[in-house]
Amino acid sequence: MRQQPTLDRKAKNSANPANSRKAEQNYSRSLRKLAQEVGRLIGAFPAGDPASVAPITDMLEKYSQALDGWALRTASAMVAEVEARDRKAWLQASADISEALRHEIWTAPTGEAMKALLAEQVTLIKSIPLDAAKRVHELTLAGLENSSRGSEIVAEIKRSGEVSVSRANLIARTETARAASVLTQARAQHIGSEGYIWRIAGDSDVRHSHKQMNGKFVRWDSPPTLSDGTTTHAGQIYNCRCYPEPVLPE
After folding, report:
1. What's the rounded Cα separation, in Å, for the pair 133 and 176?
2. Among residues 27, 224, 230, 119, which one has the least CA distance to residue 244?
3. Which 3-state string (H, E, C) describes the chain?
4. 178 near 236, Cβ under 8 Å?
5. What is d(CA 44, CA 55) in angstroms, rounded to the nearest whole number?
6. What pLDDT was estimated at residue 149?
7. Largest CB tally within 10 Å, which of 33, 186, 215, 223?
8. C-beta neighbour count of 231 within 10 angstroms
9. Cα–chain-centroid distance for residue 196?
10. Residue 208 CB: number of other CB atoms within 10 A?
């Protein structure tokens, strides 16, 4: 039986649409600056002092509320960069497909997907200072409940900036891959694609459950439940660098 064409084959093995390393690096750089500022603000108070919890929480809540404009601009830049790469991959493919299908690709309703992605990114960005405040609160309570861990608790509170930076990197890594996968899905389904081939990044960090999916066909309307119990499409879960290779309609 003749093999159905996929986006990557039509694009003559061009880089996969989800490989948005530059977008990830730019997004991560911006979020790390935010995380470092969170660490600086927390560091201005005595670590482990119960009296510091309320002002730290209040300050970081206000900081989060003030991030609306910056968060929207930062998220918009990431999503736009990922969308441009996805569009380029489809453009490379369109040279070998029909004029009618090419038109459908260019008129794909990606706006709604981008709007949803932006709203989710703004929420995640604003959660960085809120999560840091919650962590300081919980650690300080732990110190009160167990005085023998006092020095350990203080050390952990002083690591607040480092922990926030790690979270910022995780958000950038996860969300750029997810944005790419979601936008690829939106275009693919618009032109009548029923599913995709699951592809892995091919490095040593690929999870076993994701390796098991490599090369398998997945329907867009039915995200698979993997052997580790998670249900997800390729590239749409935390720390996932897998990507969907859309199967094109005949």
Report:
1. 26
2. 224
3. CCCCCEHHHHCCCCCCCCCCHHHHHHHHHHHHHHHHHHHHHHHCCCCCCHHHHHHHHHHHHHHHHCCHHHHHHHHHHHHHHHHHHHHHHHHHHHCCCCHHHHHHHHCCCHHHHHHHHHHHHHHHHHHHHHHHHHHHHHHHHHHHHCHHHHHHHHHHHHCHHHHHHHHHHHHHHHHHHHHHHHHHHHHHHHCCCCEEEEECCCCCCCCHHHHCCCCCEEECCCCCECCCCCECCCCCCCCCCCEEEEECCC
4. yes
5. 11
6. 81
7. 186
8. 10
9. 20
10. 9
Tokens 């070998």 — which residue? 96
- The amino acid occupying position 187 is R
Q: Which of 127, 233, 129 is nearest to 184 (CA)?
A: 233
Range with lowest mean pLDDT among 19-23, 29-33, 101-105, 246-250:
101-105
pLDDT digits (tens, 9 = 90+) for 52-101: 999 999 999 999 999 999 999 999 999 999 998 888 888 776 666 666 66
End-to-end CA distance of the chain: 14
Task: For residue 183, give both structure tokens.
Answer: 């936008």
Burial 99-131 (b: 16+ CB within 10 A, else e): eeebebbeebebeebbeebbebbbebbbebbbb
Average pLDDT over residues 7-18: 50
Q: Which of 163, 128, 164, 180 has its CA nearest to residue 21?
A: 180
Among the ranges given (41-45, 169-173, 188-192, 230-234), the one the predictor scored with the smallest mean pLDDT: 188-192
Between vectors from CA 77 to CA 91 and to CA 174, what angle results, nearest 5°? 85
Per-residue tokens: 182: 């979601």
